[in-house]
Amino acid sequence: MKQPHESAYFLVFVPKRTSLEAVIQAAGTRWTVEMCFQTAKAEAGHQYEVRTWQR
Fold first, then answer.
1. pTM score
2. 27, 10 in Cβ contact below 8 A?
3. In angstroms, what CA-CA distances link 30 with 5, 18, 33, 46, 54?
4. Which of 2, 40, 49, 54 is the most interior residue, by most CB within 10 Å?
5. Where are the beta strands (DSSP E) in the chain?
């Protein structure tokens, strides 16, 4: 758990016209995606790897 004296930050590259709300929403969405990946890895096992196949 983050301690009160610790800082967290994101470095973003977006067009100047991008609103702060849009940046915050994107950062929050990233956290959700990371948690989904972590859950999927736990359910599939540690040795699970995704591979693609192309014709």
1. 0.48
2. yes
3. 24, 17, 5, 22, 28
4. 40
5. none
